[in-house]
Write a structure and sequence with these properties.
There is one protein chain. By secondary structure, the protein is mainly beta. It has strands at about 5, 10-15, 20-25, 30-40, 45-50, 60, 70-75, 80-85, 90-100, 110, 115-119. Strands 2, 4, 5, 6, 9, 10 and 11 form a seven-stranded mixed sheet that branches. A four-stranded antiparallel sheet has the order 1-3-8-7, with no helix packed on it. A hairpin with a 6-residue loop joins β4 and β5.
């Protein structure tokens, strides 16, 4: 069992930056792929980014590519999401997720952290 706890959300002006953190506990995180998803009010949850177990491979949604960076520190059991040049449409609850590298679906989820971008 893996427990994920996100932090770092908050209120920021458009064009600003935030860094989200996701700390995993319960099992070693080094064999897990980490991911970030988000859900805006009235919308379905959508993929934002993921990073493979070693941190050597990443993928991003087109909407955040070039602005967001996902990273992973296995020694700290932590996945980060650096968000720069934030836009109003980035406002959402951001969820951390994890899956074993051999699995195809994410099955561990955090409780979410609110990110609000204001004009």
């Amino acid at each position: 069992q893996v427990t994920l706890v996100e932090s770092g959300g908050g209120l920021v002006q458009a064009g600003g930056s935030l860094r989200l953190s996701c700390v995993a506990s319960g099992r070693t995180f080094s064999t897990y792929t980490g991911g970030w998803f988000r859900q805006a009010p009235g919308k379905e949850r959508e993929f934002v980014a993921h990073i493979n177990w070693s941190g050597s491979s990443t993928a991003y949604a087109d909407s955040v590519k070039g602005r967001f960076t996902i990273s992973k520190d296995n020694a700290k059991n932590t996945v980060y999401l650096q968000m720069n040049s934030l836009k109003l449409e980035d406002t959402a609850v951001y969820y951390c997720a994890a899956r074993h590298y051999s699995a195809s679906q994410f099955y561990y989820w955090g409780q979410g952290t609110q990110v609000t971008v204001s004009s």
